[in-house]
């Protein structure tokens, strides 16, 4: 499969993508745990069906020491016993934040409150930005049919 577009080869789009990626680097330096960031990125990408991001975040998480068991269970995190309560709250927020059209209220107060019990305001801010960013990147990749499978860990970091 060939991508429909190469964003980085277009001067204006490439410049915009570099700004977006610099925002991700800032989020990676937040106090939101790196494992949580990767689990959230993976779950959002699974929901949206973004193969390129699933490829990337599975490999990045594995490189960072995440177990294959936890990575394989992200899609069924509600029934899995391998995630902390904080990770479960982040995954729940990620799901509701990704599926905003499925609920009349978007993200419910209960889901927000559970996340707020585990993360301070800086971490919540990073988490919300991370969820939003992942949804945007998923859509860019899906619209342009970015291929998956060839991502090399560290390639974009």
Question: Can you tell me about this structure?
Answer:
The chain is mostly helical. The chain has a single domain (34-143), classed as AhpD-like (Up-down Bundle), CATH 1.20.1290.10. The protein has seven helices and no strands. The chain is globular. The two termini are 24 Å apart. The mean pLDDT is 91.
Quick structural overview:
The protein is 63% helix and 0% strand. The chain is built from 7 helices and no strands.
Order of SSEs, N→C? HHHHHHH
Largest β sheet strand count, sense and barrel closure: none
Q: State the domain count.
A: 1
CATH architecture call: Up-down Bundle
* CATH H-level homologous superfamily name: AhpD-like
The name CATH uses for the topology is AhpD-like
Give the end-to-end Cα distance, rounded to a whole number of Å. Answer: 24 Å
Unreliable segments (pLDDT under 50, ≥5 consecutive)?
none
Number of helices: 7
Return the structural class: mainly alpha
Kindly report the average pLDDT value. 91
CATH level-1 class: Mainly Alpha
- Global shape: globular
Strand content is: under 5%
Question: Which percent range fits the helix content?
Answer: 55-70%
The overall strand count is 0
Protein name: Alkylhydroperoxidase
Pfam families: CMD (PF02627)
Keywords: Oxidoreductase, Peroxidase
GO molecular function, one term: peroxiredoxin activity
């Amino acid at each position: 499969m060939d991508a429909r577009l190469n964003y980085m080869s277009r001067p204006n789009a490439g410049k915009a993508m570099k700004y977006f990626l610099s925002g991700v680097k800032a989020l990676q330096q937040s106090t939101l745990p790196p494992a949580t960031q990767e689990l959230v990125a993976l779950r959002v990408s699974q929901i949206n069906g973004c193969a390129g991001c699933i490829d990337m975040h599975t490999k990045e998480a594995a490189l960072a020491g995440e177990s294959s068991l936890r990575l394989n269970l992200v899609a069924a995190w509600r029934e899995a016993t391998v995630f902390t309560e904080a990770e479960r709250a982040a995954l729940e927020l990620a799901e509701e934040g990704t599926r905003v059209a499925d609920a009349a209220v978007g993200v419910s107060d209960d889901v927000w409150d559970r996340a707020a019990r585990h993360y301070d305001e800086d971490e919540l801010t990073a988490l919300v930005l991370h969820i939003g960013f992942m949804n945007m990147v998923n859509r860019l990749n899906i619209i342009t049919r970015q291929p998956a499978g060839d991502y090399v860990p560290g390639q974009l970091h």
